[in-house]
Amino acid sequence: MPENEGCEGVVAALRRQHERIGEILNALHDGRWWPDDAPGSDDAAQVLAHARRIEECVADIARIVDAMKD
Known about the structure:
Layout (H helix, E strand, L loop, with lengths): L4 H24 L12 H29 L1
């Protein structure tokens, strides 16, 4: 339906990102994602900062979706 095209695009985009995050999590191997035995502390800090941004964005999306349901 034409009136649902925007929503369908949103759902498709979220599904793609969900899949990408799943692939990233699988690649992390429970935290052993650096190329040698030394932990990648600097890289890990950067990833954590980005993960926090993702958390904020997901919370924003959840608020929008909740508001749409009202």
